[in-house]
């Protein structure tokens, strides 16, 4: 129906019937609703954050004093390796996918992501690969060669257990999820924005996730190749990294860092996007320099490919390449600086409201500057030689990762959870939450720089007394536990809000973007009418502004209803000109079953039990065929069209 | 376009370049292309650092690989022919085109198997053997995947699922098939031709 009037309740009912997932276990396993998938991503990755935190807590208990032996060296190796793998791959990037999956369609006025079933698949594979990796603890053979798994230690002669097989297979498995998710984001960005939403009107988080997704498409295969080689070498006696047969241990390092350096941007750019979108709301003004921040985001992603070698300065490369990559690593600080100035200017010229979410963003800016400085100094090659493999680096990576990822994530949750649950979190507890995390974090991680400069190597399971490291380590451990308490306060606040929190209403913060025009939580179909967007801040358009500028206003409560099935508008890539009414797929069990088949297959490869490999493989094939085989409705539609033509 | 026109005048469902599924396939192909790029990067990296002659067993023979390359190229042509057929609504041409493409692809795999059998080295002998079999093996696996896709659309083609307006699955499979062919050209140039030029 081409209704132009504001939608009537009857229309809402009809849309609900079309888009709603039935309750119960069937609906749970088959839903393709991006909001459900987004929430699952958030919860699951938060669970992994806690698991990684528990591993860290054990490590910090061991290091709180010299000569402690709570855990054996072998267990310690597994702890820091799984901590790194968990935090980098199972928490930091999936949590941002959670935000993006939940928010994107709401931000761009669409009814779902571009490829909803792939979206479901990407979540199920993420979960399955996480279970796969963590099952290694059950047999006491978790990955134990650090998160970057350098060869030749990772090869079978030096590490004969299943540990590194879990690593190699687990990361290949997870890569499937990440790739599928990235494709979905890219297609959504370019095809599903509401009419009128040209690319210079999208929230910055979308630029962040888009850049991250492109980086994933171009670099993730590098790690996949590296892990496949590793697995083949360990399992089938091939030679890629083994120098005795002409292999190259450094090949692993190149392949690994070609992915892992851009990965840093994968886990920070969308988070920086969160900051860029939240700060304007509380500064009560548009972001200063929108275009520059968007361009800086993209530029960082591109430059990020050129600097992986800075992780290998200590491997004896030629001086030429050292200077090139050293310089490139310094240049990359420039776009970040642009973003920092934009945030500060926005706050400076705005009228900041000091909510908890705002505090987290402001705290982030401080940590970002500190982490950035300690990172730039490691781009200076001689300095890097001095601090490589010391706690200085451990301090640096945590400033970067916790500062740029965890703080915006928690702040972002304070901002958007009311949209997701319909209830406000406690601001009072929130302020405590922030200060405990902020103080705990600095107390815990700043002294690491000092213990590093005092020569404390990373990845040691204990240390003798009398080296002057005790005090710094004591403070570090205390700070780490304080930080953990801070995270716990957040969890408490969350559960408190679900029961007691004030009802949020559609727009508790007076936010600028489209998600605030829907109810909290939004209905299954997101928007009763597809909006038309004419500015970057559609919810902030005031009538008088429009007249001044002589601009057409955005239309949020009038527009096409599209209630003849699951439909949304497809638009042109740059200008958001409407091109087609797209039919979106219904719920389906295939994504879940496909992920499950893969899980069987990967366990088969690990064990190895070839029967399981065959079962998983056949399952995979059946799922793909079932998934792609057209439904009767699709067939009938084609027939009708054919008859009409 | 006015908002009223969106619901009434726009085509229902995107076809061709508007179809979301088509874009999904494009980026899948890009992703697979980078996968092969990194495989070949490793090959050149190891080759450049190798002591002694490279490849250790001399350049691989062209006796099978060259005809095989031609076979694969022809199969791309027949795929184009098949797809053009269905854009004009010609079911027969689609079915026959897909079938020939399938047979050519299968022939490629068989010949590749024969070449494997002739090799004097194994994946376990040294780094060259490992790289050679891994790279060509993954390419072979992609060809097999392409054959399975071909089979899938072929069954649908015989069941009369495709029309001149709706044949996205065919276009996707064709895109994938061309990609597999182009990748082979890179693999062929790197593994078979480059050592002869050095
Ligand atoms: C409660 C907060 C955290 C604490 C107390 C903590 C503590 C630690 C400790 C003690 C190590 C081992 C250092 C060593 O022995 O070399 C470590 C390593 C590491 N952490 Fe954390 N961490 C925390 C959170 C995070 C987060 C949120 C991330 C990422 C988003 C992260 C990423 C890493 C990485 C990548 C390593 C290197 C692992 C390796 O050496 O292979 N950590 N952390
Ligand atoms: Cu780096």
Report low-confidence residues of chain B grouped into runs of 5 or more. Answer: none
Share in β-strands of chain A:
under 5%
Strand content of chain B: under 5%
Q: What count of helical segments of chain B does DSSP give? A: 6
Helix content of chain A: 55-70%
Q: Give a short account of the largest sheet of chain B.
A: none
Mean pLDDT of chain A: 92
Number of strands of chain A: 2
Residue-averaged pLDDT of chain B: 93
Encode the helix/strand succession of chain A as letters: HHHHHHHHHHHHHHHHHEEHHH
What's the overall geometry of chain B? Answer: elongated
Helix/strand structural class of chain B: mainly alpha
Tell me roughly what share of residues is in helical segments of chain B: over 70%
Number of strands of chain B: 0
Describe the structure.
The complex is a heterodimer of chains A (645) and B (198). Chain A is mostly helical and 645 residues long. Chain A contains 20 helices and two strands. In chain A, strands 1-2 form a two-stranded antiparallel ribbon. In chain A, strand 1 and strand 2 (578-583) form a beta hairpin. In chain A, helix 4 (73-107) packs antiparallel against helix 5 (116-138), helix 4 packs across helix 8 (249-283) and helix 9 (290-303) packs antiparallel against helix 11. The longest helix of chain A is centred in the N-terminal third of the chain and has 35 residues, at 73-107. The radius of gyration of chain A is 25 Å and the shape is globular. The model of chain A has no long low-confidence stretch (mean pLDDT 92). By secondary structure, chain B is mainly alpha-helical. Chain B is 76% helix and 0% strand. Chain B is built from six helices and no strands. In chain B, helix 2 runs antiparallel to helix 5 and helix 3 runs antiparallel to helix 4. Chain B is elongated and about 70 Å long. In chain B, 39% of the residues are buried. At the A-B interface, helix 6, helix 7, helix 8, strand 1 and strand 2 of A face helix 1, helix 2 and helix 5 of B. The site of copper (II) ion has 5 residues of chain A, from helix 8.
């Amino acid at each position: 129906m081409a209704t132009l009037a504001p939608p009537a309740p009857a229309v809402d009912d009809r849309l609900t019937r079309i888009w709603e997932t039935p309750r119960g276990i069937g609906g749970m396993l088959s839903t393709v609703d991006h909001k459900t998938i987004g929430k699952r991503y958030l919860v699951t990755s938060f669970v992994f954050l806690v698991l990684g935190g528990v591993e860290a807590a054990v490590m910090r208990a061991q290091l709180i004093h010299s000569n402690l032996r709570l855990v054996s060296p072998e267990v310690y190796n597994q702890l820091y390796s799984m901590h790194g793998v968990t935090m980098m791959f199972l928490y930091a990037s999936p949590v941002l996918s959670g935000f993006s999956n939940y928010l994107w369609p709401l931000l761009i006025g669409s009814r779902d992501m571009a490829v909803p079933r792939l979206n479901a698949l990407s979540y199920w594979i993420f979960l399955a690969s996480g279970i796969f990796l963590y099952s290694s603890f059950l047999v006491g053979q978790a990955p134990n060669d650090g998160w970057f798994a350098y060869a030749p230690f990772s090869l079978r002669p030096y590490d004969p257990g299943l540990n590194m097989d879990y690593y190699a297979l687990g990361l290949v498995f997870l890569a499937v999820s990440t790739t599928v998710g990235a494709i979905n984001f890219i297609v959504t960005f370019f095809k599903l924005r509401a009419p009128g939403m040209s690319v210079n009107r999208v929230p910055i988080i979308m630029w962040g996730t888009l850049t991250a997704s492109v980086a994933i498409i171009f670099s993730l295969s590098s790690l996949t190749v590296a892990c496949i080689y590793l697995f083949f070498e360990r399992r089938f006696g091939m030679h890629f990294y083994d120098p005795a047969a002409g292999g190259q241990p450094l090949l692993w390092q190149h392949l690994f860092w070609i992915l892992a350096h851009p990965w840093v941007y994968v886990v920070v750019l969308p988070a920086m996007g969160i900051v860029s979108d939240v700060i304007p709301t509380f500064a009560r003004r548009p972001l200063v320099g929108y275009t520059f921040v968007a361009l800086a985001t993209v530029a960082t992603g591109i430059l990020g490919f050129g600097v992986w070698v800075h992780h290998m300065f200590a491997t004896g490369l030629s001086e030429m390449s050292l200077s090139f990559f050293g310089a490139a690593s310094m240049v990359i600080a420039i776009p970040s600086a642009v973003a920092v100035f934009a945030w500060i200017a926005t706050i400076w010229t705005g009228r900041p409201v000091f909510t908890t979410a705002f505090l987290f963003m402001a705290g982030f800016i401080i940590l970002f500057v500190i982490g950035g400085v300690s990172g730039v100094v490691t781009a200076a090659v001689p300095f890097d030689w001095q601090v490589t493999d010391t706690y200085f680096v451990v301090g640096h990576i945590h400033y970067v990762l916790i500062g740029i990822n965890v703080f915006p994530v928690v702040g972002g949750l304070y901002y958007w959870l009311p949209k997701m649950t319909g209830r406000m979190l406690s601001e009072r507890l929130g302020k405590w939450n922030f200060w405990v995390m902020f103080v705990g974090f600095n107390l815990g991680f700043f002294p690491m720089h000092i213990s590093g400069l005092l020569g404390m190597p990373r990845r040691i399971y204990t240390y003798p007394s009398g080296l002057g490291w005790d005090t710094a380590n004591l403070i570090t451990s205390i700070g780490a536990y304080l930080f953990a308490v801070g995270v716990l306060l957040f969890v408490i606040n969350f559960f408190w809000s679900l029961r007691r929190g004030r009802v949020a209403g559609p727009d508790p913060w007076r936010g600028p973007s489209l998600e605030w025009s829907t109810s909290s939580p939004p209905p299954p179909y997101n928007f009763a009418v597809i909006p038309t967007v004419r500015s970057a801040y559609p919810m902030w358009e005031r009538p008088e502004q429009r007249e001044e500028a002589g601009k057409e206003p955005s239309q949020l409560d009038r527009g096409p209803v599209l209630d003849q099935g699951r439909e949304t508008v497809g638009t042109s890539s740059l200008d958001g000109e409407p091109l087609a009414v797209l039919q979106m797929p219904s719920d389906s069990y295939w994504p879940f079953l496909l992920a499950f088949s893969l899980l069987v297959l990967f366990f088969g490869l690990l064990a190895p039990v070839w029967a399981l490999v065959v079962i998983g493989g056949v399952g995979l094939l059946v799922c793909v065929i079932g998934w792609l085989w057209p439904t009767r409705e699709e067939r009938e539609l084609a027939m009708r069209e054919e008859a009409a033509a | 376009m006015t908002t009223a026109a969106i619901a009434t005048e726009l085509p229902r469902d995107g076809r061709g370049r508007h179809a979301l599924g088509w874009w999904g396939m494009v980026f899948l192909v890009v992703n697979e292309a980078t996968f092969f790029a990194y495989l070949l990067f490793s090959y050149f990296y190891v080759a450049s650092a190798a002591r002694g002659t490279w490849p250790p067993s001399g350049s691989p023979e062209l006796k099978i690989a060259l005809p095989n390359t031609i076979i694969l190229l022809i199969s791309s042509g027949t795929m184009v022919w098949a797809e053009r057929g269905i854009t004009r609504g010609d079911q027969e041409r689609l079915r026959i085109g897909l079938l020939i493409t399938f047979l050519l692809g299968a022939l490629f795999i068989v010949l590749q198997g024969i070449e494997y059998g002739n090799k004097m080295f194994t994946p376990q002998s040294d780094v060259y053997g490992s790289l050679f079999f891994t790279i060509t093996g993954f390419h072979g696996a992609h060809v097999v995947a392409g054959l399975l896709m071909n089979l899938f659309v072929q069954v649908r083609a015989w069941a009369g699922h495709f029309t001149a307006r709706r044949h996205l699955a065919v276009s996707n499979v064709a895109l994938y098939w061309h990609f597999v062919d182009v990748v082979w050209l890179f693999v062929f140039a790197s593994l078979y031709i480059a050592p002869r030029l050095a």
